[in-house]
């Protein structure tokens, strides 16, 4: 089975591209969705132990937790030490299930794939990209977004040019859905050939 890592900076169209892989019948593991689920389940006891008062019967209070880790690198590192292994285990279980089902291709959607060394866990990396002006327009159009917030997010992400340089495949989302979908199908044809060669 070929494992594709899907990544891209904020506003590049990664979620829409992930949906295109799903639409094409490929199983996709969404790291962000896994975190949301873990915040209701497995991560709760460890987060409460490290950050008392940030959870309830409903799970992690994301606002309360954010207030504790924002601008606190030590606290953020502690949170990542709790969450990252759980997300990775969740992804491994997903891949095991895909293999058992006889899937030829599976996708791990990891926002900070390069930043967290995730490329070592996949066979090829798909980077979703768009020109800087398109990215800025998309992000600044989001509710509550400010220049400062956008700059802070970008500072935590590897520059798009570097991601593109390290990618095996690119999906340029600036030319519309049909063009992006065509690129996704091209990637799947290549990945199928890779799977056949194993």
Automatic annotation (TrEMBL):
Catalyzes the phosphorylation of the 3'-hydroxyl group of dephosphocoenzyme A to form coenzyme A. NCBIfam families: dephospho-CoA kinase (TIGR00152). One of its GO terms (biological process) is coenzyme A biosynthetic process. It holds the Pfam family CoaE. The keyword Transferase applies. Keywords: ATP-binding, Coenzyme A biosynthesis, Cytoplasm, Kinase, Nucleotide-binding, Transferase. Its EC number is 2.7.1.24. It comes from Blastochloris sulfoviridis. It comes from the Bacteria. Signal peptide: none annotated. It is an enzyme of class 2 (transferase). This is Dephospho-CoA kinase. Pathway: Cofactor biosynthesis; coenzyme A biosynthesis; CoA from (R)-pantothenate: step 5/5. It is found in: Cytoplasm. One of its GO terms (molecular function) is dephospho-CoA kinase activity. Belongs to the CoaE family. It catalyses: 3'-dephospho-CoA + ATP = ADP + CoA + H(+). ATP binds at residues 11-16.
